[in-house]
Amino acid sequence: MQVIIAEDISKKYIIDHQKAARKSHTLRDTFSEKIKHFFGKGEQDEVEQEEFWALRDVNFTVNQGDRVGIIGHNGAGKSTLLKILSKITEPTGGKVKIKGRVASLLEVGTGFHPELTGRENIFLNGAILGMKRQEIKNAFDSIVDFAGVEKFLDTPVKRYSSGMYVRLGFAISAHLSPEILIIDEVLAVGDADFQKKCLGKMRDVSESGRTILFVSHNLAAVKSLCNRAFYFEHGKLKMQGDTTHVVNNYLSHVAKTNLQHFWETPEEGPGTDEIRFRSVKIDPEYQDSKLYIDVRTPVRVHIEFWNLADRADLNLSLHLYAFTGECIFNVGTASQSFEKGLVSATLEVPGNFLNDGSYVISIMVVKDTSTVLFQLLDALSFEVEDHREGVTWYGKWPGYVRPQLNFQISQSEVLV
Amino acid sequence: MAYSDEIVIEAGHGAKNYWRDLWKNRELLWILSRRDLSVRYKQTVIGAGWAVIRPFATMAVMVFVFSMVGKFRGDAGIPYPLMVLAGITIWNFFSSTFTQISHSILLNSNLVTKTYFPRLIMPLSSVVVGFVDFFISIALFALISVWFRHTPGWQIILFPAFLVLTLLASLAFGLIFAVMNVRFRDIAQLIPFLVQIGFYACPIAYSSSLVEANHDVWWYDLYYLNPMVSIIDGFKWCLLGDGAFFKVSSLYSTMGLIAVMLTISIYYFRKEENSFVDYI
Lengths: 416, 280
What we know:
The structure holds 2 protein chains of 2 kinds. Chain A is of the alpha+beta class. Chain A has 8 helices and 16 strands. In chain A, the strands form 3 sheets. In chain A, strands 10, 11, 12, 13, 14, 15 and 16 form a 7-stranded antiparallel β-sheet that branches. A 6-stranded mixed β-sheet of chain A has the order 5-6-7-3-8-9, with helices on both faces. Chain A has a 3-stranded antiparallel β-sheet with strand order 2-1-4. In chain A, a hairpin with a 2-residue loop joins β8 and β9. Chain A starts with a strand and ends in a 32-residue tail after the last strand. By secondary structure, chain B is mostly helical. Chain B is 71% helix and 2% strand. Chain B starts with 5 loop residues before the first strand and ends with a helix. At the A-B interface, α1, α2, β4 and α3 of A face β1, α2, α5 and α14 of B.
């Protein structure tokens, strides 16, 4: 049976460019705009408004008992969709029919008040999520037990550790008994043990015939929990279907971001009078016939440039940056003497080395081991996706690198 | 599985089951009120004592400034401090509920962006703190009445009516401000200022009989246009008896004004509430 039917839903936002930095208008702005307009002076510095479609003509249906994973880049419209389905904001066009009681969990511990005790917040948050007082009372012990906060029930939650706070928040929402549960990125928080509990709980919920919509960037979690997936891009539902299929398609699309550049002639290539780049390229050795780079994938970086000087002592220096800007490593070639013509270089980055994340490469051409001739900033960028085997933990793996080092464990003594 | 609801979400459709939803969410209304109350005096030493100290101290200052220094007199036969305290009590109730209502959406912005419930719950739940302070202040009034050997007359039965009228007035003006506050933060600046002006524009430290005494001044009608004037006069009359000046006819225009404003505010609030999340 179809429990959610979405027909052509769209959501438009108006973005003001002139005052983009300001979050809300002041009355004065509005008045002065109006007055200027009245005197016909509005044109010169009128607020430039741009329409932005967070969602555009989205159609889908969800059947009872479906566990739907919703994936896509930031700003693809996932959260807007959840907000529309939870009635927080209304669509600009189209309509959605929903059968059944909906509970949406867009945040862990919505409305928790820091000054109130754990006990008081259970009732407050429960009521905000739409539970009846009696329901909360019935579930109370079970919530406390699930969150593991017995000792701190009468402590204000502002004294809670962030872990306890999140556990309490999730425990309450896990005891909701809606027919349709909408969840946004809850697994981004909490320790491994707790995440396992959460996933387990969500699986229980879905096995009891309830429907789940689950937005996450954590593809491993989506794969393990969901039977269907929606892939959103630029406000459109780009693909829907079987989870593995959709996730793989999404990943191979993501991976194509900026893997190569090629310039036909030295005039077009970036550089100086002495050197010009011809091509930069990332050549991954995909594993398991996947079309994206994951943590196991060895990657080759090919670089070609024209040496325009008659004879020069040159070497290359390559920086790999994390998306956040930190330099992960810098490697250089030996310096060598080159004639006028093409020079090519290859760097091999082994598999099982980089952690999952986004990376940016910049390449420097150095003369006489001391003078930087040219630096090609942001030459290439690529994403490394997660891949796990034999692990039942889905949290973000910490660190920029994830090398497989020789790390042995064995029983050294048995106590009798 | 039996389905409890079937809902349709589309632009401008929110209105359909609104009042039923509001009624369904009465437990939430109650629990949000409780939250505001229990948070109110957290981490204070005196706690609810503040609800006694503030009106009492204001009264003391008024008595000192207007009665002892300025030689103001209340209406004949009515102790000046009692008159001031009656005025302060109802004015504080109005100003605190009005202020709370105006800020209610912004203060709950975390709820607005993360959950759905009829947004009217927020302003409605915010008034409870004003009620509690009001009753504490009334208890103080009763104590001081005993000191002055004053007993209320039959008018006291109208007490609930004036209380309800004041609440409606604060909703009538507060709801509009609550909506505008979401888009224009100027409102947050304006409110304390309005409350301060109101304190002097309303007959709190003085009696309307002083205005009535020279009623051919050009601002006479303007004075009575302020709905709080007749409410405060009426409330004083209700507590202090016939000795207190009260022009009953002024109450009719006030009630009319409140009815019109309340209709407009609720309409405006309902019209805008679905877009709060986009502007907050």
